[in-house]
Amino acid sequence: MPDAPQMPPPSGKISKEIEALSKECESYQPVIQSVFDEVKRILVGQDDMLLKLIIGLLCRGHILLEGVPGLAKTLTIKALGTAIGADYSRVQFTPDLLPADIIGTRIYNPQTTEFSIRLGPIFANLVLADEINRAPAKVQSALLEAMQEKQVTIGDRAFKLPDPFLVMATQNPIETEGTYPLPEAQLDRFMMKVKVTYPWRNEESLIIDRITSGKKIELKAAIDTPKVIEMQRVVDKIYVDENIKKYVLDIVFATRNPKEFGLDIDYLIEYGASPRASIYLVMTAKAFAFLNGRGFVTPDDIKAVVMDVLRHRILLTYEAEAEEVTSEDLIQKILGTIYVP
Last residue of some domain: 218, 242, 261? Predict the structure, then answer.
């Protein structure tokens, strides 16, 4: 569980409604902890990845994970699916994959001379799109359309996707041969882009002991999907002060017009963050506040999620690449300049 920022609410005094909401959020702490504890029975380290997946689930968003192979990305989402009693499916993206392999297709039955619908693996609560950048654009688009619309059309019929619904896509940053990088406009549809790092030495030692022992760990459901939907509705009610909204807008607009905020970085930014950045910053901060048992958002909540929400939404210039400046560097400069309420 993340550490709760010890800050007063932006408005100074908590109203009775917000105080009641905070108590409601606190009542869910044992439920949330039970999910973390169940997943951690099999997962070693990678707490940040698990936290961001749960935030995405609570916000009805989707997560793009970037990391080298073998960092427990598949294990994490599969374990999370079990812990929340959800259906889980995995699609290995390859260059010969077709859209029908993901969303499903119509099958002709010669005996009845009728078509039947076979639904694809997208019809699950948690979907792992493994190595999404290995499939061509048509397949990527089919997945992203399902993510955006929460439904797919097969033939002349539309099928609603299950609720809750989360896509966790992974991409390997060390290979470029035989890959189809996601265009920036499609990257923008992912709520967060999370970078997964290597485990610490002591964590890897524990991983060795756990995997080589030959003991199989059987996970069980700590909660069910209706409880997840219930928590999503509580997150929707989290209070966001006008000063917090202004703080979010200042951060996002600083990526578009840095000179207005006294930042000399405009030559490094080709395009700033889209309006989705403002929306997702507020949504993810609300989920982070909920996970900490608070009914209101603080600036520290924004700072906790801003890197994952913005890093794939700032398009850099050739000058930035030449100077080896990353989007993370620019976000840090913006955070260091923008007034914190």
Answer: 218
